[in-house]
Amino acid sequence: MTRKYVRFESLGHPDGCYGIIEDNLVRPISGPVWLGGDFVTQVEPLESVGLLAPVEPSKIVCIGLNYHAHVEASHSADNAPERPLVFLKPPSSIIGPGQRIVHPEESERVDYEAELGVVIGKTARNVAAENADEYIFGFTCVNDVTARDLQKKDGQWSRAKGFDTFCPVGPWIVPELDYRDVLVEGVHNGVVKQSGRTSLMIFDIPYLISYISRIMTLNPGDLISTGTPAGIAPMKSGDTIDVRVKGIGTLENKMA
Q1: Side-chain half-sphere CA neighbours of 11 within 13 A
Q2: What is the pTM of this model?
Q3: Which ranges of 106-157 does DSSP label H, i.e. alpha helix?
Q4: pLDDT digits 0-9 by tens, 52-110
Q5: Cβ(243)–Cβ(250) under 8 Å?
Q6: Domain residue extents for the chain
Q7: Which fold is adopted by the domain 4-52?
């Protein structure tokens, strides 16, 4: 059975706690596993807890235009990136499964972007691509929510991608995944709109970890969001967006 690492809140842990799902129980952990957290004795029924975003990263490093089909759909085929297009989202943008995405008043169009997230397990600096797996703790689902009109208006992406609630993450982290060829889907109101395999990425995950770690130190618990397949589209109030990654599960959020 695949291990699932979570953060959760409950009557016994109102401020949030890390844990691992075992059958239908959540076994608390004294802290993040990547920082040496250890199991504690009590368990709680899964149905009695509320799942939170499974990470509290020092930074969220995102990659733009990393699927060939997305580049083509964006009419950027002649400008496909020669190197990873790196940008940051603030940790304050993170929400967990089931929490609401808020449409900012400043924007007329807010899009979903289904992505595979990589959680870093130990300090990474100047990592060689062939050694990148040693620095991965696990994988999760990410929705790189974007105010598309503001992205075009500003000419850079910080505001468009940095609003509070613009980075849903979860529902958990799995430590083992065939990330080189896994299906990533974005589902809008029950209809699959995005579907792409990570084998079709322009820059694969080992290369991304190596490239990013030569720019900035990656700390344990940091999150890399690896790019989105073609099919992004706007959301409106009441819409449901699912990010599905084969081997992980489904991250579901609604637009407020």
Answers
A1: 6
A2: 0.96
A3: 148-154
A4: 999 999 999 999 999 988 787 765 556 678 999 999 999 999 999 999 999 999 999 99
A5: yes
A6: 4-52, 60-255
A7: SH3 type barrels. (2.30.30)
